[in-house]
Fold:
Amino acid sequence: MRILTMIKRILTEMLRDKRTLALMFIAPLFILSLLYFLFQSNTDQTAALGVRNVDTTLVKAVNNNHVKIHQISSDKSAETIIRDHDYAGVLSQNGDHLTLTLQNSDQSKTAILKQSLQKGQIELKSKAARTAIKTQAKALKKMQAALAAVTRQMGRAGNGKQVAQPAAGKQLKAAPSYTVTTHYLYGSSNSTYFNTLLPILIGFVVFFFVFLISGIALLRERTTGTLNRLLATPIKRGEVIMGYLSGYGIFALIQTLLVVLFTIYVFNIQILGNIWNIFLINILLAVVALTLGLLISTFASSEFQMVQFIPIVVIPQIFFSGIIPVNQMADWLQPVAKIMPLYYGSQSMSDVIQKGATIGDIAPSLGILLIFVVVFLVLNMLSMRHYRQV
Amino acid sequence: MTEVIQVSDLEQGYGKTVVLKDINLTVNSGEILALIGPSGAGKTTLVSTIMGMLKPMKGQVTVLDTPMPNRQLLAKIGFMAQTDALYESLTANENLMFFGSMQGISRKALKEKIPYAANIVNLVPDLKKYVKDYSGGMKRRLSLAIALVSDPEILILDEPTVGIDPELRQQIWNELHKLANAGRTILLTTHVMEDAEEADDVMMIRNGAAIAQGTPKQLITEYGVKSSETVFLAAGRQQDAHTNND
Ligand SMILES: Nc1ncnc2c1ncn2[C@@H]1O[C@H](COP(=O)(O)OP(=O)(O)OP(=O)(O)O)[C@@H](O)[C@H]1O
Ligand SMILES: [Mg+2]
Structure:
């Protein structure tokens, strides 16, 4: 009864606070879209490459959508040419020797050029190998015919192996041919870093905004004295916390649904696992953020101080959420990740989206998130004691 | 007459600092007790202790024979805090509804009681207004209406008359007397003697100690002065003389 009244009050207050509503529902989508476009533009990038005295076959092989070839005739040094024309790099050939000079002020362009050159070389090699194989095949056929003739002769004469072997051995030394076909377990050749990042980002965005808004809401209640006034009524401390949890939980739930559906349908993200697992993870993450926000607001005496907690409570969680692979971190750093709720959230999000993890697979992580919720709830109950002893 | 609020040998403070010492008081049913004292004397601290928001450091507080702090008992107390604690984005009516149901009153009962409480403080025409559009005095009045809306057995009011004009002040006092006559117990704090004169009993607090206690008339004769205003000054001088002797 009291909890219901509290929920109703929180809903009324929130619905009248248009700016907070916008922050909660539009800001996350805005941030995700911004990141989407930021990472998207990367793949459309082209790098200008000047070429001098390079074999046309190689130039052809190096050329692709991301490289713009400029033929150079002048004798100026590669450095000067790069400066004059703002090329990302210059490739020159001297006999068998290739020299690639890179501007390297934009690493992504550098990477494009290096990759293209490598790809070009591989392409040439495999082409050469294919030609070699064809010639080999022809030679082999000739040999077979010859061998057959010899065997026929030898059949009459006795043992023919001695003649055939040296010839075959010589032919096999030629380069093998590899045709490379790439299979993508997740995504496609159009996949960008964004696809890897997205599961982590969804979790983070949900966590961050719920944390901020619930924290500031309870803080406002503390500083205006309404919390004190509320505790001068026979309401239980647990009821106050449950009221907050459910009231702001409703908004957190809507926000989570919005963020998840937005990313799936607008960004057209492929999800290997079950979408309900994704909702489950994010809702749990939102509840952790909610209880943590309520708790942290105890230690702040103004909105400004609440914001000061972001670098301490939220930012480190991003680093350990999987943006930098945790298992590649220094040994002593790895346990730090294990105390961060976002680590478990992001981990299971990545598992569900990219590896198709089932509810059983992510159950341990969900369990740990649940433990976080319980711990924060208990701490919240204790901190309420400060306002009323019973 | 039964003893409703009883405080015995109370010592209270925050952390290690002691704010109140040797406080003894009794309020009977149907009685109005005014706590008067200068700013920082410890009135709010005493009121919070009686409400059970703070645990006594020493001594005992009982309300309706129940030792405080006690959560359930808060349902029988109508409280008005010194600072207005209102939800600014809600209307006055919504604030009354919210705190009323927190107090444990049903929505149906509240619909009848809200006009009554709002009428005492002349807020009926402004009930639909948002609290953020209220003046300071209107907020005080709304806080008082919230204390009254649950029709409680005990009223504890921390500086209820600050920012309220003389005419309305008189109207509020009339209502408080009416409630007391109907058997309600009222404890309030104030800075001004005019309020204290309206009360049945006055307790003066200065520097955390009770320096004088009795009916307003008793105090005037006891200190041999002409008005209650001067009682306070005389009692203060006496306290200073004692502390200097120590
Ligand atoms: N939360 C608190 N923590 C520490 N000290 C406090 C706290 N609240 C009040 N005090 C101190 O206790 C003393 C008494 O304060 P209290 O609020 O009870 O005074 P008061 O009589 O109500 O004053 P006023 O008439 O100004 O409201 C003051 O010295 C004050 O500094
Ligand atoms: Mg006070």
